[in-house]
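Hi there,

I know you've been waiting on this one. I reran it after we fixed the sequence typo, so this is the corrected version. Both the input and the resulting structure follow.
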Amino acid sequence: MWLLPRLSCALVALIALVAGGGELAPAAAVDGHGHRPAAHAPTPRDRFAGMSGEEIVEEGLADEGFATEAVEIGLDGIEIVAESEGDGDFTMRLDLASGSSRGTLTVSDTGDGGSPAVDVYAVEIEESTEERAVFDLTDLETGEVLHYDSAAASPSIAFAIPIAFAAVSLGTALYYLAVGAAIVISGVLALETAKAVSKILEENAQRSSTQRRYYYPAVRKNGKVYISGRCLTTSQALARGRKGWDVWATSRGFARSLAQKLNPSRKPIRHLPHKPTYLEHYHPFRHSPEMHAFYGLPS
């Protein structure tokens, strides 16, 4: 028998689905995580202000009944290893490859005192923000696929208990990653600027002059700028800018050049950060197209 960790009301709902075979009702979440905040409660960003992404993930998982063994967040990949506390003996390990929203989730159970029962799932994340998590879990042994959407909370297959644990634990981890350091939008993993920039510059320094890249996709979310590690050629950066999508450049000169090329009729517009967590940037003349050519680090 699978012993369950005391995770959250979401897991109770999943177990009820197995027992009753009925529809899983949409979560009553207000904070995008399955929890209804108390009136006037501080927001997660208020609570975790000044903490690193790793610290936020560790403390957030502890709130959900996990003892965190390892959290590593960087442009070279994301790894989270945590063990459930309380009544359960589950361990989860999330591995996302460098610059990718795909990876594996390994779930182990040692509740019977014998050899651990291990289930491995391929993970494909479509969206992971504070407001919503959307992902697919594929059981690598059986081929069963679970589509999980925290907004709809409507699974595509009946849950076995390990899959229920996997879905809830992954959703929890992704939520605190989004609060702390990393988001996924439209299948693209992006890190908060400070996490991404040092690694980008380090990798670029190791490339030959012909292989260096000076532009990277950027996304504004929750008052911050996130950068994908997928480098762009100049033509790709221009194509992205023409769609009204943001780009981060490795220097002020490259940011200005991109904005100028997007609208060569007049000089681009330079703006200082609109808030401490934003970046200096250029807009093409008259904000046409309406995009940001970011550069540098948060002030």
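Quick highlight: The two ends are 53 Å apart (CA to CA).

Best,
R. S.
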